[in-house]
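Researcher: For the record, we're logging two predictions in this thread. I'll number them. Prediction 1 follows.
Model: Prediction 1, sequence and structure:
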Amino acid sequence: MRFSDQLAAAERRSQSMLCVGLDPDPARFPGAWQGDASRIAEFCAAIVDATHDLVCAFKPQIAYFAAHRAEDQLERLIGHIRRVAPAVPVILDAKRGDIGATAEQYAREAFERYRADALTLSPFMGFDSIEPYLRWEGKGLFLLCRTSNPGGADLQAQPLQGGELLYERIARLAAGPWNRGGQLGLVVGATYPREVERVRALAPTLPLLIPGVGAQGGDAVATVRAGWRGDGGGTRAAIIVNSSRAVLYASAGDDFAAAARAAAIQARAQLQSARMRPG
């Protein structure tokens, strides 16, 4: 199944735009697990078990595994997701950005080793850094566009010749000539709802992966109003609103999984409510 179809089916099934980011930090694990990197897969699996019926995707961040020599645990975790939630897509957050044979190896890592359904990429080396991934038919690719960090404006908000901003150019390219297989989406931070709205206008059919809600301070209601386009009278395009720390670390106690579920229920309801309100 193509990533876009899988995502749409998961959103309908769960009635959710929420993506839970799996960013495991052993220093924040509960109780006796605190500081124990051998528990990474177990901790994340408990979060998956508690939330998989509430989300449209899971997004493991590869650095949180690699820093602890836990790539094998990432493989096991994605295998666990496949068993308990086979209809929920996995977006591997790796932000790769290289060309040629190196990009081909990164693609193999993501789609063969980890069996991810989608991958985040940096587009700043141009189309050469995107094309090798497009050969993986049906896989989703999310290009960094207007990111949630304050320093993103150092480059992304710089004007080009003619007045277009760099992030606007990325959105146009992703929605146009780069999107040869219909596989591309964009990463736009929830901390900048005006930019979310601008990217949506430039790329009305692309899915948007939106981090920054929760611990980073993004406004969920403003994010949905800026990025959501319903079925009636317009082009339907998904928004995937990511929350990591607010769900993962909702409790530091043994009830962490139950607390994560409660936080995910609250986040899903907030997002759905915002979608139903008039703009």
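Researcher: Logged. Prediction 2.
Model: Prediction 2, sequence and structure:
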Amino acid sequence: MPDNIVGIAVPAPDAQSVINSIVEAESVGIRAAWLTSGGDAGDALTTLAVAADRTNSILLGTSIMQTWSRHPITAARQAQTIDAVAPGRLQLGVGPGHLQAMRQTFGVGFQAPLSHLTEYVRVLKTLLHEGEIDFQGEHIVAAASLPAPANVAVMASALRPRSFEMCGAEGIGAISWVCPHPYVRDVALPAMKAGAQQAGHDTPPLVVHAPVCVTDDLAAARQGVRDQLGYFPYTPFYARMFAAAGFQRADDTGWTDEMLDSVLLAGDEAAVAAQIRAIFDWGADELLASIVTVGDPDESRLRTMRLLADA
């Protein structure tokens, strides 16, 4: 994977809008587009398959595809299909999702999510990169082959040190989400490096998520995060992560200004470019930006996209 990639999370009002947004992002010069699971846009991998056929070079990622919703053999075969259309462009990020949603939606037990995720990425990575798998685990059984290995980057969501350490040990990329950047730098990245060192290989890529807003109104950018990403401090996994990072959530919105300033990249073009460079300087390989809009949403989005394309 090339160094210092800047990509964007693509909102998902519907599948056609997502595809159009990915085509637009490539035309502006954005190097990677990421989709989450669920929502009105439908299945992320199916949408990316169509987007792959309508674009030429932009990397296409899932952040994340929920592991409980499909067997890793099925995921590998879907990924192989996309790789056949867009060789080397798929970044397949997987993760367990949230306990309540997975139980209500899929009826899964959600026991030992990190152990389950570890087995899942082992099956997925082995099948994609080696072309066959014969695996008997505590959570997953898999025996299958592909016509040929596929050049698909396998990644996983990570919030707490053990999940970053697992990514390092398994040799897969780690994707943070609304994690305070000092926490990623000082806690998560060292855990990832330790896992890789213990396993005897290089540290895999680290994808750092950040809300980003190019604006002259910092207060409006902070409010934009509250409005557009407001629920995360109230979800159990994220609440524990923020507490471990030394933050207590506000009673009204969940976000304090201190929390916001630890995750948000905001300011004019020069300021945001410098903040992005700082993240790469301390060890991130890719920035995954959620564009936060202020004022006129179309003008704000395009201003931020242009900066991200040039970063």
